[in-house]
Amino acid sequence: MVLLLYTIPLLWAAVIDYRKRIIPDWTWIALLLIGIASAFLLPAPNLDERIAGLLIPGLCLLLLASKYGGVGGGDIKLTAAMGFCFGLDTLAFILFFALLPACIYAAVTRQRSIPLAVFLFIGFVFSLLSRMLG
Questions:
Q1: Is-contact 86 53, C-beta < 8 A?
Q2: pLDDT per residue over 59-79, tens digit each?
Q3: ∠ CA(74), CA(110), CA(12), 5° rounding?
Q4: Does residue 37 contact residue 31 with C-beta atoms inside 8 Å?
Q5: Which residues, at least 6 apart from 99, have a Cβ–Cβ distance to it below 8 Å?
Q6: Is 22 helix (H, G, I), strand (E, B) or coil?
Q7: Where do the structural domains in the chain lie, given as residue ranges?
Q8: pLDDT tens for residues 7-28?
Q9: Burial category of 73 from C-beta neighbours within 10 Å (exposed 0-12, middle 13-18, buried 19 and up)
Q10: What is the DSSP string of 79-93?
Q11: Gene Ontology cellular component (predicted)?
């Protein structure tokens, strides 16, 4: 199950982001390399969906970061790598289950800066569970 290979770098990114508010480069690079390898081994998602998953969210977050701030470069790179690995459709599912608790966390703790990798990992776990159960 290739999806389980993604767990290690995503979990590590979440732990380090929670502790230090930084996402190590090796985590998104590892995700991207696993995604590239899986693009040759797995039929889905197709390459077009992977490229859309890489570019669309990555560019949107980059524009948000440059205009408003608050989104770190590690968050952008991690989200873009996840988009390539899972494709745009699955990334949308992951983001829904990541951003909802992230917004609640930010409101409850009254923080403007949150460890986004933690919530991306939560969204990934929901995605993984939905695939395993459904």
A1: yes
A2: 888 887 777 776 788 999 999
A3: 30
A4: no
A5: 119, 123
A6: coil
A7: 2-133
A8: 999 999 999 999 999 999 999 9
A9: middle
A10: HHHHHHHHHHHHHHH
A11: plasma membrane
